[in-house]
Please model this.
Amino acid sequence: MQNDYRQMWSSLGLDLEAHDVLLDVLNKAYQDVFLSQKGRPESMSYFDFVISEVHGLRIKELLDAKKEGRPVIGSFCVFVPEELILAVDGISVGLCTGAEFAFVEAEKLLPRNTCALIKSAFGFKQGKVCPYLESSDMVVGENTCDGKKKSYEVLRDLVPNLYVMDLPQMKSDAGRDLLAAEYRRFLVELEKLSGRTVTVEKLQQAIRTINAKRKAVGRLARYRHANPAPISGLDALLINQVYFYDNPVRFTGSVEKINDELDTRIGSATGVCSADTPRLLVSGCPMAVPNWKVPSVVEKCGAVIVAEESCVGERGTRFLTRETGDSVDALVENIVDRYYQIDCAVFTPNPSRLDHIREMVKDSAADGVIHYNLQFCQPYQIETGGVEVALEEQGIPVLRLDTDYSSEDIGQLSTRVEAFIERILG
Ligand code: BJ8
Model:
């Protein structure tokens, strides 16, 4: 099987030696971070399997689907509507942006002070190690932060099939109109690429499928409100990360299986920690696979993460799309309504994000908030100040962590998280 995969990776143009190094690091990190945890729900075995096959079986599935004429669409942002992709029988995949790989190469094209997430996208391309990127029939870039927006001008020369989606910067009538126009333009492009015309039935079914996936992770989020926490923050993050790669129907079924197990755990007051374990909410920049650094530090220091206000978490998944509508146009409007509510820090002003953090702290009974920023991410770094002041005024302790994907600051992060936990424990 491994040999088949090597052939497959080679046919995708991957650098097999560099790819071996990446898989080796990934496997070791997974063992250390995930498999060493105690008291994990048994149904997490599905997600262990998914990660073990993340560059194997799942890529094979994508290539098989491509043979059937189904396009693979890679993207970097939760503003790219999965429903539209699914409506043309396409497959939506999140592109690897969670590890430091070939940064020396990436920094030949991008300034050093570019956030790690963007550099990672370039490093995976330049290092030829991402089978998702190489399988994509279309790569969608979106005009969100300046770093992404400008870097797509450079990425255009590296990937033959880059499509750039414009996005509003303000929540206004004009902003909503822009989003609607861009989603319509995207739909036309998807129809062209796939050779399929979207019908009401297809789009409605796609909306239902993606809503079911979001409902499943929403249910999981609610179980995490229990004390003791029935699942670690790391495992919950992993589920939110796999959300971007897996077949949506299979993913939903696997999450619901975990949910049923958590239901039983809560009924018998079984958790992954004790009821007096400090509970933390993590808010800020998204954590893409395999970015597990901060949650791993936090949980090794003895706290448990009970919620993520992040695009790989509730910010990205909390809203559902209305399923009713008797024309494709009406359904696209429903999709616009849904995505328009996402409160990414690239919007100005962006007050609903703070309201949502407050609401999440309350619902999850969090004792404090870690505001997680990638260095050089101006939108989230700038929003941190206001979030910190507002929450502290309300008596909610906040720890601001600015970091990247390197492991050099793990010791320093641990010291700061330990001090924060001591503050919480009073
Ligand atoms: S909707 S959060 S997924 S843009 S970390 S690249 S913002 S400098 S990722 Fe995001 Fe869409 Fe918004 Fe969500 Fe720029 Fe910041 Fe880097 Fe970022």
Q: What stands out?
A: The chain has a mean pLDDT of 97. The first helix runs from residue 2 to 11. The chain is about 55% helix and 10% strand. The chain has one domain: 1-426.
